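MgtC/SapB family protein: structure, please.
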Amino acid sequence: MKLVADLLVTLGLGFFFGLAFEEFHHDDTRTRPGGIRTFPLLALCGALLFWLPSGSPLPFCVGLLVLGGWLALFYAARLQGDGDNGIVVLVCNLLAYLLGAVVMAGPRWVAVGGTVGAVLLLTGRDRLHALARRVGLDEIVTAGKFLILTGLVMPLLPDTPVTRLTHLTPHQVWLAVLAICTVSYASYLLQRYVAPKGTGVWVALLGGLYSSTATTIVLARRLGDAAPDPYQTQAGIVLATAIMYLRLTAIVGVFDWSLALHLAPPAIGLAACGGLIAAILYRRGARAPAAVQTAPQGPSNPLELTTALVFAALFVVISVATGWARDRFGVAGLYALAAVVGVSDIDPFVLSLAEGGAPGTPVAAAVLAILIAASSNNVLKAAYTLGFAGRRHGALPAGILVLLAMAGLGVTAMLGGWI
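Here you go.
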């Protein structure tokens, strides 16, 4: 029964692959090997040669050599003509032959996934070529840096402490760096290649995932330059901060699920308040007849290796400072440190709490410290907004950011009374 099922799956996948192949080339009058009949037959041949009771891979390999020789003769003849000399057609034939062996030898999901992936790559030719034309050399270098951070550096780092100053290991430190880099890089790619052009709110929403502080500065500068859609730009500033609360909760959840669950209710509540205010501002701007949406300046590269190293150093320093403040001054020292680090990048502080940078700190106290740091950071962004946008256009979003900061401190005071 298993043999029959495998052969049916092989024929089905070959038929599906051949159907996509013929549909893709239906406007091409030139003769091409492969199609809705050829691919199922090739897949069936590969499956039967692989299954032969001899147990030797020789028959399957001989079949592969015969197919390869025939395709080589076809390609040699094609080279003498003036047509398309690409090898995609030849690769599709080889893949069809291999499908049967993959179905017989391994889990069926491997064959199904490989077939679906091949069909998507085949039918997505125009979009993929358009993407290749849009992506510059700098983006390829950026992707290479991301692979270095994740696939090369990470496995080489030890997972044991190297100093008595902190219990953090190099592996944990770099994992924190990767958590921030991954969220920032994904947001960067979405802003640059996916977000609709001319929709500043989408850029603000993604910017909140990237960096609410950086997004606030960009939008505040745009306000200062007499943006044609001031209300919608102001909405973007508030929205970026609202998204910040969700971003912090998600990142904390990667390292400490219990802390994230306790942080989620106040963070989601503050994010909802900010989102509601942003929606009101956006609708107010949409009613203005002269409003013309233009996208703000795109995000900068989030994967500079120097930036990653600086973040790692800050993470270690703040982790040590967090543990020292907790040991020397108790929870009050932790809250004071949260207020101080809020005027800079709060991610290292938040991650140090999530990774246990202050051993013995109750979960509720860690939640309060994160809310204090976020409120302090909101005050800093309000100052940036007034400084870059001026009083005329910057007062409203700056005031809203201060109100969100006060709301965060109010939630902190209420939660603190319940501890």
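Notes: The chain is about 80% helix and 0% strand.
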